What does this fold into?
Amino acid sequence: MLQMSQYADTSLAAAQPYPVRHFLFLQGLPGPFFRKLADALRAGGHRTSRINFNGGDMWDWRGSGATGFRGDIAAFPAWFDDYLSGSDISDVVLFGDNRPLHLQAIAICRQRAIRVFVVEEGMLRPNFVSFEQGGTNYWSSLPRDLDQLRRIADDHEDEPVDPVTSNVRRRIVEAVGYYVVQTLTIPFFPHYRSHRRNAPVGEMWAWIRRRAGRGREDAASSAAVSAVIDSRFFLFPMQLDGDHQIDSHSDFPDMASAIDCVFHSFAVHAPRATKLLVKMHPFDPDLDGWRADVMDRASRYGIADRVYFIERFDLAPLLQKAAGVVTINSTVGPLALEQACPVFCLGRAAYDIPGVTAQCGLERFWDEPPPVDADNFELMCCAMRATALVNGGFHDPKALDMLVAGAVRRLTGQAFASPAA
It folds into this structure.
């Protein structure tokens, strides 16, 4: 597997000083962010290009400078290398460094000393988006050592943070538009295969079914929370099955395997009066029927009377009351730490740092979760804001404008702190 933290030098000095930079955009999150960012870069005198892999990419870009790749993924490395040979690309910007096409592109960019900036939805939500040179999440260049984090924080003047509003309806509209156009244009991109596990049409029908049953889900979730909230309980936030954070940054092949691991440990080591609240990921269409699956597994481990399941609920009151959070590497982790709720990571995460998260082993965590060191957590957050995050969001007009402005500063060399060596 590629060691992504090494595929690009994180110092600005290492990059060739282009008077006018040429930014190439690959796939982004459904929505207008990459298009608006490219507009802002061109307004600043830079050049932009785009590679579209499907009709949804074309729909989101809607501008000049685009080239379509219509071949098989096996042909992409040679095609991309030829594309770069005929250009003066200085930087590549992409969303998600785990996608198969992006993995190939990143490896080629590394060979050519082309800077790669990776965008993700953010380790410190909802006010920040991950926007980092080299890689994000566990492939981030962020040090896992408190002394190095302190040096970064000391060299960086923390800026005021503007709160970000998330517009779920807008996110849904943007995603539906992207996937509808992608589906309608399959004949023009016959070889394209999505990085996502499920077909868009199947997910759409699943969401319609969930919407129709939302009243039942909410009632069942509220009853589960009422049953645990005044007890000693741990929260286990699920992640999307097929999520590359599981595939690439943990030893679990899927979410079900992680559930089995947690349930086995809970059955053997957790105090008898302790309860476990399992929360489904908010963007899971629930094609697998998780409520029935989770409770069936709990029965097999003899803990059905202590395991509770919720489809949705506000995280804040849960994190304030929970004895701790057990996660693979979810971004719920930093949210919990912010609420002084101890966190144990089953997988690999950028925030899984000694002195910040629990390092005691899961069997001890059930009994004695170590308290959160607020100073160490804030130190980590300050270093993240300096090197890996941009204030803003994807799905609200004001938040998007903030994100574009911060991303331009990051891409053109301003407001960037290089991680300590």
User: Anything to note?
Assistant: The mean pLDDT is 91. The chain has 16 helices and twelve strands. The first strand starts at residue 22 and ends at 25.
